[in-house]
Amino acid sequence: MTAIPEPIFDHLLRMTDRRGTFEHARIAVPDPEHGYCTDDMARVLVVATREPGLQRTLNGVARIALQFLNGAQALTGACRNRMNSNGNWVDEPAVEDAWGRSLWGLGTAAARSDVVWARQSAILQFERGAQERSPWPRAKAFAALGAAEMLAFDPEHRAARLLIIDYAASIAESTGDPSWPWPEPRLTYANAVLPEAMIAAGVVLEDGPLRQRGLDLLAWLLDTETSGGHLSVTPVAGRGPGEKGPAFDQQPIEVSSLADACARAASVDSDPMWPDGIRAAAAWFEGANDLGQPMWDSDTGGGFDGLHADRVNRNQGAESTLAVLSTLQHAQRFSAVPQ
């Protein structure tokens, strides 16, 4: 098996200043014009705290992310998403994806950071955010992942348990259609977070059917997003029943979401498809994709923003960079698993 490259954090560090990580870049140059967003800073916190001791320089990045997320939260627990380059918030607190991702990042930091103050800050912020509930499926799913991380750290954490109970109760019933078991009429974005959250909730709540539904749904998604021996993920416009690929433009977040979900599945199920899925996600960034082109800068760790029908978008924004770093973190852990 080809050696899995290690994550490289140079570009992430270049994209990060004292306030946060810039959302966009022009090729490899940070673009302050569009400022920062909570979605990205939650991802930063996940990546920076997932591997305690891996990169001591990442402790500083985690501190910036925690401070950003703290500022994003209202006292109610709702969350702002956008800050301009002058450090001013430009939207109102809400319970959309930024809220869910914030809880995901905070739960991960509480469970995995090796810095005491970081864990304590993450717990306080998580408890504030966990007061809220969201009607949006992906926001709820990200929040449930954060709750599962918190419960791994503290199995008696009441707010996390209540949040994940409410999440499980909100999951739509199965469609009953084996050709389209997906709980939505179309695949859209960050799709794998839905089955991943089902798996996590099923494990925490000792709900075997929910856990199995998540595994089955993830297996279907992985099969649907594989073509010609490589990943061919859902494009920005989505994918519905009967629609065939390849379709463009494809976003790195789809690939990293699959890697996240496969890593969780591999932690509770021995089927080799899950490590294989993680390796396929890493290979997508290395060039095993519909254009046969690398989707990252292997010298700096910058991730390319999109795979179009005729070219690679070589801008290296925060979301894409964090997608490749997260995927390679998982792939490193599973690189020794036999194929």
Basic shape: globular
How many distinct domains? 2
- Which runs of at least 5 residues are low in confidence (pLDDT < 50)? none
Radius of gyration: 18 Å
Helix/strand-derived category reads mainly alpha
Q: Which strands sit side by side, in order, in the main sheet?
A: 1-2
The helix-strand sequence is HEEEHHEHHHHHHEEHHEEH
Largest beta-sheet details: 2 strands, antiparallel
Q: Helical residue percent?
A: 40-55%
Protein name: Glycosyltransferase
Notes on the protein architecture:
By secondary structure, the protein is mainly α. The protein folds into two domains: 190 residues, no CATH class; 136 residues. It has a two-stranded antiparallel sheet with strand order 1-2. Strands 3-4 form a two-stranded antiparallel ribbon. A hairpin with a 4-residue loop joins strand 7 and strand 8.
What is this entry, summarized?
This protein is mostly helical and 339 residues long. Helix content is 50%, strand content 5%.
Topology:
Blueprint: H1 10-15, E1 24-26, E2 29-31, E3 36-37, H2 38-49, H3 58-72, E4 82-83, H4 97-112, H5 116-129, H6 137-153, H7 158-170, H8 193-204, H9 208-224, E5 226-227, E6 230-231, H10 252-268, H11 273-286, E7 306-307, E8 312-313, H12 318-334
Antiparallel strand pairs: 1-2, 3-4, 5-6, 7-8
Helix pairs in contact: 2-3, 2-4, 2-12, 3-5, 4-5, 4-6, 6-7, 6-8, 7-8, 8-9, 8-10, 10-11, 10-12, 11-12
Protein name: Glycosyltransferase
